[in-house]
Write a structure and sequence with these properties.
Number of domains: 2
Oligomer: single chain
Strand content: 35-45%
Number of helices: 2
Shape: elongated
Order of helices and strands: HHEEEEEEEEEEEEE
Helix content: 10-25%
Strand order of the largest sheet: 1-2-4-6-12-8-11
Structural class: alpha/beta
Distance between the termini: 36 Å
Length: 170
């Protein structure tokens, strides 16, 4: 990823400096090199050599799928797209509070079919869609998804969405 950016920047800067000294150009070298830096960064992002990042609980400038781990409690997607899969965790291990934040991106949260989930959603200029099809665009809302009629949540999920989209489904 980053080799494309640095390769393009170093080759174009070196070529410029050679031409400047060979032809004795009277141009500001520092300004030209800053311009080449920005041009190289833009081309790198445009053609897929971007600066995306993904680890076990965060996606930035990238897209991907994250399998949720019971030892982690905070998950984030920033300027990207992610699918958070809660279906692989046994229901007995779900009894904890977890947080999923989406900022300038989109997220899909997949919940186990049999799990009761209490969802505390906060939305700012965004769309948060709940398992029953209802949605929230601005403000906060607490939603209980109780397919088994337990009247108690197996998992408490805090969903924060800012300038993005989050879809929660069973």
């Amino acid at each position: 990823m980053r080799t494309f950016f640095w390769g393009l920047f170093l080759i174009s800067s070196g070529l410029f400096l050679i031409l400047k000294h060979y032809f004795n150009w009277n141009v500001p070298a520092f300004r030209i090199i800053i311009g080449l830096f920005l041009l190289s960064l833009g081309l790198s992002l445009l053609f897929g050599g971007g600066t995306g990042y993904q680890d076990k609980n965060t996606i930035i400038f990238n897209e991907g799928r994250i399998s949720v781990d019971i030892n982690e409690k905070d998950y984030s997607v920033i300027f990207g797209s992610a699918t958070f899969d809660f279906r692989e965790i046994p229901i007995a291990d779900l009894n904890r509070k977890m947080e999923v934040s989406t900022i300038f991106g989109s997220a899909e949260i997949l919940l186990p079919k049999d799990a009761s989930v209490e969802i505390e959603a906060n939305s700012v200029f965004s769309s948060t869609q709940f398992p029953d099809g209802s949605s929230l665009t601005f403000g906060d809302r607490t939603f209980l998804s109780d397919p088994q009629g337990k009247k108690e949540a197996d998992i408490k999920l805090e969903v924060n969405t800012v300038f993005g989209s989050t879809v929660i489904s069973h």
